[in-house]
Design a protein that fits this description.
9 helices; seven-stranded mixed β-sheet; SH3 type barrels; 31% helix; single chain; Arc Repressor Mutant, subunit A; 14 strands; binds ligand BTX
């Protein structure tokens, strides 16, 4: 942890009391003037800190920033999110994360940006990533699994995000296979998993997550399909750093469980959040359209769809539309 992160952690831990400049300087091993300078810097970033002559410093409020120290000062993970690369503007966090992964970035490294100018969805689609209101990030992991199991990580990520959102905000979301997180049928999060692999082993998986957090309005083309946590939270702003901490923590718990015991437990959780199962759905794949009953997912995360003739199809990649409640 940097001095800035340690200082913030101390202020956050002692939110209801004052901590003296003397105590801070002893714990951080720097002069009281240095402490004062760090506090001034934090104030410039939007942290409200009260300083009283005889009592010391007290944190009153935190800004809605997602720089590394905002996220890491209160992050209780071993490796997920412990290294954060922050950029104000990027083309796509996926691109930068891929480059870092090739250069040997450690597992758990995260790239976060305030804005993407070429945010990517699947199949060459674009992902709207306006400045300041969302979370646009890519996580690098290096699981020792064969490439065909990589889709399991998309499903694991969806579970981690649903649980993280619930923990940080109390809001419940649903998962639509394979990679959308919805509230009341509208998309709040998109997940894009990209892999670098040899024939039998994964080298790295880059999990891209785009979340509409404090977005107040969408372009016309998305108005019917998209929503944000703020909109679903009666217009109240969500603290993005706290949300990220919760998601990283949930992800790490699930990921460790997955590496130890396999996909089974994750699958059960995923199914409990899935809206697309047990319904008649239409799957649009690259080769055509199939309508049928969504029976479930396999241990590899493949969707099983039973058509009207009773034949079961294995769907690896598609867009699905839920046609009816059944
Ligand atoms: P997808 O192909 O499933 O969804 C893309 C579609 O979703 C678009 O065609 C559009 O209809 C709709 N859409 C676009 N922007 C938004 C938005 N902000 N909110 C809701 N709906 C939207 C889903 O792809 C995967 C998206 C991953 C995005 C992350 S952001 C960080 C990382 N970097 C990067 O370039 N992509 C990932």
């Amino acid at each position: 942890q940097s001095i800035r992160e340690k200082l913030l952690a101390m202020l956050l831990e002692n939110k209801d009391t004052y901590i003296s400049g003397q105590m801070i300087s002893e714990k951080l091993g720097c002069s009281r003037t240095a402490v004062w300078k760090h506090i001034s810097e934090l104030k410039k970033e939007g942290y409200e800190v009260e300083g009283l002559q005889k009592r010391g410093y007290r944190l009153i409020s935190t800004p809605n920033n997602i720089r590394p120290h905002d996220i890491k000062s209160n992050l209780k993970t071993k490796f997920i999110g412990q290294k954060i690369v922050f950029q104000e503007v990027v083309t796509s966090t996926q691109e930068l994360a891929q480059k870092l992964a090739q250069e040997g970035a450690k597992e758990g490294t995260v790239v976060v940006a305030e804005q993407q100018i070429k945010g990517r969805g699947r199949l060459g689609r674009t992902w709207e990533s306006p400045k300041g209101s969302g979370i646009w990030m890519s996580l690098i992991i290096r699981p020792n699994i064969p490439p065909f199991q990589a889709p399991q990580l998309t499903l694991l990520t969806a579970v981690a995000i649903v649980q993280g959102i619930k923990k940080a905000t109390g809001i419940s979301c649903e998962i639509k296979w394979p990679n959308d997180i919805l509230i009341n049928g509208r998309k709040i999060v998109g997940i894009l998993t990209e892999m670098q692999a040899e024939s039998d082993r994964v080298q790295s998986i880059i999990i891209g997550m785009g979340m509409n957090v404090n977005t107040t309005s969408f372009p016309d083309s998305l108005k019917q399909k998209a929503t944000s946590l703020l909109i679903e939270n009666d217009g109240k702003e969500i603290n993005r750093a706290q949300l990220l901490q919760a998601i990283f923590e949930q992800f790490e718990i699930l990921y460790i469980e997955y590496l130890k015991n396999g996909f089974e437990v994750i699958k059960l959780r995923w199914e409990s959040y899935a809206v697309s199962l047990g319904k008649i759905i239409t799957a649009r794949t690259l080769t055509g359209e199939i309508t049928g009953y969504a029976k479930g997912i396999t241990d590899q995360g493949v969707l099983l769809l039973e058509d009207y003739e009773g034949k079961t199809h294995e769907i690896y990649s598609a867009d699905i539309e839920i046609s009816s409640q059944s």
